[in-house]
Amino acid sequence: MNEKLLMETVALAGKIMIASGSEIYRVEETMRYMLQKSTYPVAEAVALGTGLFVTLDDPNRDTLTIARRVPARSNNLNRICAVNDISRKFCCDQISVEDAYEQLKAIEADKVYSKRWNFLGLIGVSAFFAPIFGGGMIDVLGAGIVGVLLAAADWLIKKVKLNDFFVNAFCAFVIAVGATVVRKFFIPAASADVMIISSIMSLVPGVAFTTSIRDILNGDYASGSARMLEAVVVALAIAAGVGLGLVSWGAFWRWLT
Fold first, then answer.
1. Strands 64-69, 51-57: pairing kind
2. What would you report as the CA-atom Rg of the chain, rounded to the nearest whole angstrom?
């Protein structure tokens, strides 16, 4: 067994899972199972919300330690499932450590959805959440138009490479202004409230908040608290963006008229 390659493989698996929004206990469990293939008597894996540590220790050999930082996180259950599948095959000796590493690298580099599908997804989420909040077909149409503005704003702000707070705040600002403009000039019968609420659903960190609760219930208080704080910050950014958009549009319209 190539111990160094094993550690790189384990660290890569943990990094992908954390970046994809997996629970911390699941990340540590996956890494520990894979480390059992090592010839070192002591193998430890510690995962946090923003990074991980892997160590192999033996009194008769040099200690091996790897630390990896995970700067960006999202929600991708498909990648988590794929990593779990690779780890099971590796632990059952169905694939070698070299094969496991190459497959994990392919998962890390793979893009599940293209920019076009992401664009259409934002529009679809914005439009089809409208009926859930009591909107009619007019509101679905209006929310779809706002979804187009949201997708364009998301693409534009990510080109600038700002942090998540400003990305979510800017997108929420565009949603609020876009909904009021659509109602004022294009679809007066549509509800601005329904268009705003349905459009911001793609920004709401519901999965991150749920995962943080699960981490806390499993005793991972540091990572659970960090993820909960991250979800709260995102929610505050959305609220600030919508509020600023409504206030700015109101002030601009009063000045214009």
1. antiparallel
2. 23
CA–CA dist 206, 80 (Å, integer): 18
Token pair in block for residue 33:
């199972």
| pTM score, whole prediction | 0.83
DSSP state of 134: T
Domain ranges of the chain: 3-109, 115-256
Cβ(209)–Cβ(190) under 8 Å?
A: no
Q: What are phi and psi of 45, to 5 degrees?
A: -135, 125
- State how far the Cα of 100 lies from the Cα of 85, in Å rounded to an integer: 10
Nearest C-alpha neighbor of 202 from the set 240, 166, 168? 168
- Mean pLDDT in order along the chain per 10 residues (257 residues): 89 94 91 92 89 91 90 85 95 94 92 82 93 93 95 87 86 95 92 95 87 86 85 93 93 86
